């Protein structure tokens, strides 16, 4: 499936600011599951753009605005053709013994540890054991944990924020897609299954929006995408921007500036299928 994606973020400051330094992670990843046909990033006030790849191979566009300004607009335009592999069947594919060899391949080590928003606690380990209900297959365990998260967490807009920790989500049993992803990652890592956070877009008939999901490493099959918010494997309606240990590795926009803390942010995302 081919999509045109417009992602526009506007900041209005109550008084002028200066010395704005920003990193933008809105460039879709060129991976086998998707072809990036074009990408254009615009910034107002105009600024010189540089780009690089971070430790997790995400494209980062950087810009600086040193002069005084009262607003900032960041607009990313992408055209992406998605072609993910067929979903894996819900059957035994990978024993836990085979999974134990995963840290030595595909840079899995970082995705087995605690991270800023994901903590491997005894409680998380117990929850993961409850969720898998004795299965001896790692892939079936992942599917069971995804269903557990989907069933036991309530999706509630604005119930959390971008700095909400996995432990808070488990305590309140509610959150948004980012929180569903963090919980599933924590459960998987508790059982020594490599799991990483994915940021991107989800195009549906009802809405177009930024989204977060999970990828787990399955020996013999590679990284496979799972969406605990919808209890499904990813399809051609998902566009991947980046991946990391958790949200802190792939925020869409990060930066700092000198000036007022009072500002208003407006975000618009529009995803249009290309016929």
> Would you identify the regions where 5 or more consecutive residues have pLDDT less than 50?
none
Rg, Cα atoms, Å? 19 Å
What name is given to the CATH topology of the largest domain? C8orf32 fold
Q: How would you characterize the largest beta sheet? A: 7 strands, antiparallel
CATH hierarchy: architecture of the largest domain: Roll
Round the mean pLDDT to the nearest integer and report it.
Answer: 95
Query: Which structural class do you get from the secondary structure elements?
Result: alpha+beta
Q: What is the count of β-strands?
A: 14
Query: Judging from the principal axes of the Cα atoms, what is the shape?
Result: globular
The end-to-end span amounts to 9 Å
β-strand percent reads: 35-45%
């Amino acid at each position: 499936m081919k999509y045109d994606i417009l992602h526009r973020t506007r900041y209005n400051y109550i008084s002028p600011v200066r010395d704005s330094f920003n990193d933008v992670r809105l460039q879709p990843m060129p991976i086998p599951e998707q072809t990036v046909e074009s990408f254009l990033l615009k910034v107002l006030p105009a600024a010189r753009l540089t780009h690089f790849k971070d430790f997790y191979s995400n494209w980062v566009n950087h810009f600086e605005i040193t002069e005084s300004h009262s607003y900032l607009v960041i607009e990313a335009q992408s055209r992406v053709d998605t072609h993910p592999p067929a979903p894996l069947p819900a059957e035994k594919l990978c024993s836990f013994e085979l999974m134990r060899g995963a840290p030595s391949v595909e840079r899995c080590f970082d995705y087995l540890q605690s991270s800023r928003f994901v903590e491997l606690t005894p409680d998380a380990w117990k929850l993961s054991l409850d969720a898998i209900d004795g299965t001896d297959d790692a892939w079936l365990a992942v599917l069971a944990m995804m269903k557990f998260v989907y069933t036991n967490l309530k999706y509630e807009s604005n119930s959390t924020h971008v700095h909400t920790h996995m432990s808070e989500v488990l305590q309140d049993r509610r959150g948004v897609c980012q929180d569903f992803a963090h919980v599933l990652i924590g459960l998987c890592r508790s059982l020594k299954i490599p799991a990483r956070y994915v940021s991107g877009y989800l195009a549906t008939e009802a809405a177009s929006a930024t989204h977060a999901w999970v990828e787990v490493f399955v020996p013999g099959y590679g990284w496979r995408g799972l969406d605990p918010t919808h209890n499904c494997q990813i399809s051609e309606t998902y566009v991947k921007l980046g991946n990391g240990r958790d949200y802190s590795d792939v925020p869409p926009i990060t930066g700092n500036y000198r000036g007022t803390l009072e500002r208003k942010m407006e975000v618009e995302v529009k995803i249009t299928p290309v016929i």
